[in-house]
């Protein structure tokens, strides 16, 4: 038994165990682990030493770009704050975002196919419209060679999409790679064409940097501007003239922007995050639409009657506030039209404050003309101030004055003989002879040629003639001072001709400011066209207050003498219900067949406690009493209806009655 057990035990211990399957599995596991770790180590080494530099470059070159979106430009209102003279209207625009580099031939063909398809869509929904972009134009707008902007910037293909186009592209978006329909704003203007040269107009930012210094500076700082709200989009509209330019900063608002990741190729790499733009401030102007439209129509009506005149200008300025209630430069243009420069280059400028020829021939008078007799009230004031004569002193006017050793005669208009006259009467009768002998020669005899001209010039500039009026417009012509020129004329001749308005040219706006000084007895008020600036919620952020630029100290007796002389008979004011002060003027330019007579007129009303001053210039209009005064009368009537020359608005008169 024991031996059997012992043998059995020995038999069990000596018999070898079969472990081959387990050993194979273990070997396979270790081998697999070795292979995997080898691959990982190899891959890590490959990434570090082979792909590492490229990946590092891509990582460091990938960043986020903020693509500016044009802000919503603020509106411009008339004086009531209710009539929008300029405003922004939302439209939908089609953009294309380039996710690939299309500069090689294969890719460029893809872009061409996209352009062909887009052009076909535009043609389909706008049959017969020649303004629609064709495939060639679309390729230019895609800017595949990045000549106009960076690769990551969306390309504007078309603005102001129709409802059908919007629906089509939203439905077919997947078929057009990279297209986006975005809301933008286009600038619109009052369809009645209210003070269009005053309001100005806008252009794309990309078209103006080399023209206007302020935009050139902005363009240069765009790339380093840290505040994305201040970055200008190449496509956004910016002010190019008038109040649109003068108040660009206030009207613009802040840019919105699209944030997108950019890869090493400078192309978009991911989706966009949108920050919407902010609306700009609104302007409340001093221009009253009703009065402005009367002024524009009055000029247009007179130009139809006059055989030679083709342009006319008028400025109506409140005496106590400096508010310009009307500023008309006619003819004008329609800023809502898609005009080209050649069509408007002689009418887009504001002729009341700038100088320019009205046509290409150069044969017509420019927008600033010699003053003529409207300078005579100031000539008398200068003579009285300088002690050249007194208020009661008389002068014998034989119809002409003589100049030079040869006794050249300078005559009154129509060689009028006025006999014994005072300064007051000299203004009323518009005596050239009085101004020459008593003022021009008086200054020459007192000071000599050089100082005499200097004294005259100083007085002119005290009254705003030859200097800036201070108006809130971007461009202003300061005048042509021929009496200061170094020509062959003697100092005496220059002073003599300056004394009756034949030696300097000034703008209609300068004449209006000068007229307010005659009315308020010496305060030069700053004219302004904007009275309030409001934020997007309508809160007033700035109120423009009346500002006195300078004052002149003349005796009341001098002012009274001048005011009493401003009583020239003007038939167009027959039936006018107020006593008013006025002076007509007719300046002459050229000689013989090229001789031109320009109509000029200034007035303020009422004579006592005056409210409104008006200046009107009609180049080649003939006598100011005929061409310019009817325009002023209609503006006075319109102001009386709206505001009241006595402070009480009169409302609309019976349109069937002729006030003239």
* The CATH superfamily title of the largest domain: DD-peptidase/beta-lactamase superfamily
> Briefly, what CATH class of the largest domain?
Alpha Beta
Total number of helices = 20
Beta-strand portion reads 15-25%
Mean pLDDT, to the nearest integer, reads 87
User: Could you say which overall geometry the principal axes of the C-alpha atoms support?
Assistant: elongated
Distance between the termini: 157 Å
Stretches with pLDDT under 50, minimum 5 residues: 1-15, 655-660
Rg, Cα atoms, Å: 39 Å
- For this structure, the quaternary state is single chain
Total separate domains: 2
Largest sheet: 7 strands, mixed
Overall strand count: 26
CATH topology of the largest domain: Beta-lactamase
Q: How much helicity do the residues have?
A: 25-40%
CATH architecture of the largest domain: 3-Layer(aba) Sandwich
Structural class: alpha+beta
InterPro entries: Beta-lactam/transpept (IPR050515), Beta-lactam/transpept-like (IPR012338), PBP_dimer (IPR005311), PBP_dimer_sf (IPR036138), PCN-bd_Tpept (IPR001460)
Pfam families: PBP_dimer, Transpeptidase
Keywords: Cell membrane, Cell shape, Cell wall biogenesis/degradation, Membrane, Peptidoglycan synthesis, Transmembrane, Transmembrane helix
Subcellular location: Cell membrane; Membrane
């Amino acid at each position: 038994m024991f031996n059997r057990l012992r043998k059995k035990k020995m038999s069990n211990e000596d018999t070898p165990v079969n472990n081959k399957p387990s050993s194979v599995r273990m070997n396979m596991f270790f081998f697999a682990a070795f292979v995997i770790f080898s691959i990982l180590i190899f891959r890590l080494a490959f990434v570090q030493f082979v792909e590492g530099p490229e990946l590092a470059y891509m990582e460091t070159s990938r960043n986020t770009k903020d693509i500016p979106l044009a802000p919503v430009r603020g509106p411009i209102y008339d004086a009531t704050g209710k009539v929008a003279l300029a405003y922004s209207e939302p439209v939908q625009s089609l953009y294309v975002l380039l996710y690939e580099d299309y500069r090689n031939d294969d890719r460029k063909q893809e872009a061409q196919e996209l352009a062909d398809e887009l052009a076909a869509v535009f043609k389909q929904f706008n049959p017969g419209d020649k303004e629609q972009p064709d495939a060639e134009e679309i390729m230019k707008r895609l800017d595949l060679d990045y000549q106009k902007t960076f690769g990551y910037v969306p390309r504007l293909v078309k603005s102001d999409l129709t409802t059908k186009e919007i629906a089509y592209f939203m439905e077919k978006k997947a078929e057009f790679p990279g297209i986006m329909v975005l809301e933008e704003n286009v600038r619109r203007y009052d369809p009645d064409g209210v003070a269009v040269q005053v309001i100005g107009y806008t252009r794309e930012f990309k078209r103006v940097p080399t023209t206007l210094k302020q935009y050139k500076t902005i363009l240069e700082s765009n790339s380093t501007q840290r505040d994305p709200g201040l970055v200008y989009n190449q496509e956004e509209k910016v002010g190019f003239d008038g109040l649109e330019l003068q108040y660009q900063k206030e009207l613009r608002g802040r840019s919105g922007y699209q944030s997108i990741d950019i890869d090493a190729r400078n192309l978009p790499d991911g989706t966009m995050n949108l920050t919407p733009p902010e609306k700009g401030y609104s302007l409340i102007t001093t221009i009253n639409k009703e009065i402005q439209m009367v002024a524009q129509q009055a000029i247009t009506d007179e130009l139809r009657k006059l055989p030679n005149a083709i342009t006319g200008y008028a400025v109506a300025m409140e005496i106590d506030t400096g508010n310009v209630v009307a500023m008309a430069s006619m003819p004008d243009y329609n800023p809502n039209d898609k005009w080209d420069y050649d069509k408007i280059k002689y009418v887009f400028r504001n002729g009341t404050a700038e100088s320019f020829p009205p046509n290409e021939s150069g044969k017509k008078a420019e927008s600033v003309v010699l003053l003529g007799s409207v300078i005579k009230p100031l000539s008398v004031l200068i003579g009285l101030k300088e002690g050249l004569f007194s208020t009661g002193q008389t002068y014998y006017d034989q119809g002409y004055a003589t100049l030079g050793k040869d006794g050249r005669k300078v005559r009154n208009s129509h060689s009028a003989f006025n006999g014994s006259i005072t300064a007051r009467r000299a203004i009323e009768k518009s005596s050239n002879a009085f101004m020459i002998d008593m003022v021009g020669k008086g200054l020459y005899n007192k000071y000599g040629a050089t100082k005499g001209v200097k004294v005259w010039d100083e007085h002119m500039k005290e009254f705003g003639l030859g200097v800036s009026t201070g108006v809130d417009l971007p461009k202003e012509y300061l005048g042509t001072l021929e009496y200061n020129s170094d020509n062959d004329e003697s100092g005496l001749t220059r002073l003599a001709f300056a004394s009756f308005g034949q030696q300097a040219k000034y703008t209609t706006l300068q004449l209006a400011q000068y007229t307010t000084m005659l009315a308020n007895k010496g305060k030069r008020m700053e004219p302004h066209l904007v009275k309030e600036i409001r934020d997007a919620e309508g809160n007033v952020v700035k109120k423009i207050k009346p500002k006195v630029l300078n004052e002149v100290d003349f005796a009341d007796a001098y002012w009274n003498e001048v005011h009493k002389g401003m009583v020239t008979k003007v038939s167009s004011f027959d039936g006018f219900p107020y006593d008013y002060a006025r002076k007509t003027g007719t300046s002459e330019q050229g000689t013989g067949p090229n001789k031109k007579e320009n109509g000029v007129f200034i007035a303020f009303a009422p004579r006592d406690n005056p409210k409104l001053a008006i200046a009107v210039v009609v180049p080649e209009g003939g006598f100011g009493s005929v061409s310019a005064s009817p325009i002023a009368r209609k503006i006075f009537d319109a102001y009386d209806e709206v505001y009241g020359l006595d402070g009480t608005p009169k409302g609309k008169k019976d349109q069937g009655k002729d006030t003239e």
